[in-house]
């Protein structure tokens, strides 16, 4: 599930990369990547969003015995990221489809 989430975020921004061996190294590498200026804030927030969703999924599996499908999990990551960006930067795109499209342009 975690690998699918990281691959989702990387593909949103048009990247392919080999995952580092630890989360510490991943965050270190994440900060050193050059992205377009207009998506830099989103790039910085994206890992926190994914970690939040992974934590929620872990708790749901552990305490409720419920497991999301991978497509549902990916949708929840995108929805939460869109919500965070929309609330933090209101001038950004409104629909989730436009939001995802804006990351790849």
Q: Would you mind describing this structure in some detail?
A:
It comes from Davidia involucrata (Dove tree). The protein has 105 residues and is mainly α. The protein has one domain (2-104). 70% of the residues lie in helices and 0% in strands. It is built from 5 helices and no strands. Helix 1 (2-12) packs antiparallel against helix 3 and helix 3 (40-64) crosses helix 4 (70-88).
Characteristics:
single chain, 105 residues, mainly alpha, 5 helices, 70% helix, Reverse transcriptase zinc-binding domain-containing protein
The outline comes out as globular
- Largest sheet report: none
Order of helices and strands: HHHHH
Q: Helix coverage percent of residues?
A: 55-70%
Protein name: Reverse transcriptase zinc-binding domain-containing protein
Itemize the secondary structure elements and their pairings.
Blueprint: H1 2-12, H2 23-31, H3 40-64, H4 70-88, H5 96-104
Helix pairs in contact: 1-3, 3-4
Briefly summarize what is shown.
This is Reverse transcriptase zinc-binding domain-containing protein. This protein is mainly alpha-helical.
